[in-house]
Design goal:
The complex is a heterodimer of chains A (399) and B (199). Chain A has 399 residues and is an alpha/beta fold. Helix content of chain A is 35%, strand content 15%. In chain A, the strands form four sheets. Chain A has an eight-stranded mixed β-sheet with strand order 1-4-8-5-11-12-13-14, with helices on both faces. In chain A, strands 2-3 form a two-stranded antiparallel sheet. Chain B has a seven-stranded mixed β-sheet with strand order 3-2-1-4-5-7-6, sandwiched between helices. Classes of the chains: A alpha/beta (399), B alpha/beta (199). Chain A binds chain B through residues 327, 329, 345, 348-349, 352-353, 355, 357-362, 378, 381-382, 385-386, 388-389, 393, and chain B through 17, 39, 41, 47, 50-51, 53-55, 57, 59-63, 71-73, 76.
Amino acid sequence: MTIAIPSDSVGLVQPRVEHFDEPLALRSGAILPAYDLVIEIYGTLNAARSNAVLICHALSGDHHAAGYHTLEDSKPGWWDSAIGPGKAIDTNRFYVVSLNNLGGCAGSTGPVSINPETGKHYGPNFPIITVRDWVNSQMRLMNRLKIGKWAAVIGGSLGGMQVLRWAISYPERLRNAIVIAAAPKLSAQNIAFNEVARHSITSDPNFFGGHYLEHGTYPKQGLMLARMVGHITYLSDTAMSAKFGKTVTDFEKQGANFGRDLRTGKLSFGFNADFQVESYLHYQGERFSENFDANTYLLMTKALDYFDPSVDYDGDLTKAFEHSDCSFLIMSFSTDWRFPPERSRELVNTLLRAKCDVSYLEIDADQGHDAFLMPIPRYISALSTYLGRVHEELGEDAA
Amino acid sequence: MRPDQEIIQEWIQPGSRVLDLGCGDGSLLLYLQKSKGVRGVGLEIDAGNIEQCLRNGVNVVEQNLNSGLSNFRSASFDTVLLAQTLQALSKPDLLINEMLRIGKNGIVTFPNFGNWKSRVYLWFKGRMPVSKFMPHQWYNTPNIHFCTVKDFDALCEENKIKVLARTVVDSQHQGSWYMRVWPNFLGEIAIYHITKSQQ
């Protein structure tokens, strides 16, 4: 079935691969001799090459942030709610660059790629990648595209951490840092959830120490479980109740399942999925396990765990931002319990102490951590207003 | 430019760091950025005002003043502003002291409840004053801590706060010689420039 492309969509888009031959020294000490980055670009670069914006993706994201690859696509890119002509990240104004990060499984070099040295998949031998390594590779992409300074680098969650790293490592290469639903580093609870996810993958009998592709299989159960746990942490209690408690009046008539919709209208008195939330999680987990590489999942969660820019500054994050002369926009969501507003406020206070230009919004939203992907009016409006200002200032500079 | 802002800007050093508590739509900071080259940030809780600040290119942080300012380091700003917000705070005395911990000096403006119009209203009507300027009823007003010029002078004295300058204006923000003579009776808006007394 073909779809009609909405008028505020970037439309049909085509990814392209950029190959890099210059070896990339990673934070772990390992060296990636050569690599590919798969990217998508929306909008047009202006004559001054000043209107480029970089989008950094989160744990399970990729380069396909907006538009459609084919007319048969059931869904647009992962951040289509914010990127497009006339949208908050306005492709009529900005040249929007989006990539799949190293270690990913959507086309950039990662565990599913063939290691030229062995002729086999990298699998578990793909080096551990950190946020800093991603930003270094994004920097090379920036140079390849002949962009001197990003008008803005934008990201949510793990993407927001890449934005912070940009502001610390290459402050002279960006004007604005937009950090959404992120944290300056993970809490012990965050790491604990990641470890549950990793453990469920590595203990799956089909994991084969990460060499599952050579065995013609994949750790489906492990990936499913990892995603199910992850998914719970992305939603708020309120969001789950809203999603699975829609038929409140029916259940009030029947009795007792307020906010916990049953699948069939009665209990099974067995261990099958009785409640809709259960089958929803199964569905989410299953779909994810079919589309995402387990080794990539392990790498992404490690990148999250390792992120702490204060390590180079004796644990003092303020020092890390002392040379960051870009402007910051930080946003958090009220019911996000993965990276709650307090974590963003911690970041804002650090930036204030470092005498950085910073604005901060705490958006009321029921959707939990996932809110950063949703078209929440105040959030989208603020992003749009801020970027409108960014665009105006580009004009002032050109004049 | 509102005349009270005209008065305020004279007390701000060019190129200084300014924190504006309850910055509204950011118009004062915008003016100070343009005319004085200050580097500023405002605190605000109203979503519409916050977005207007973003539109104006003014740094704004969503923060409730009633939750305190402990996240700001001592002496991290040159001037801390509190314009027309004092009367809406739950603990105005604590906030004034916090202002002078964070800033080398502070500027406070507030509606003077000792003004003759308020006195006449209460005297003749026997009810809490309501005007075009202060349109709320007693039960729904955000203004929970009204004070007079004399009250504020007393607060400064008790808290060892030095008044560097004080002026009063009417609701059109015009000053006059007779207001300078009888500030608590004739002034509608009081504007103070304060700092911590050297012990």
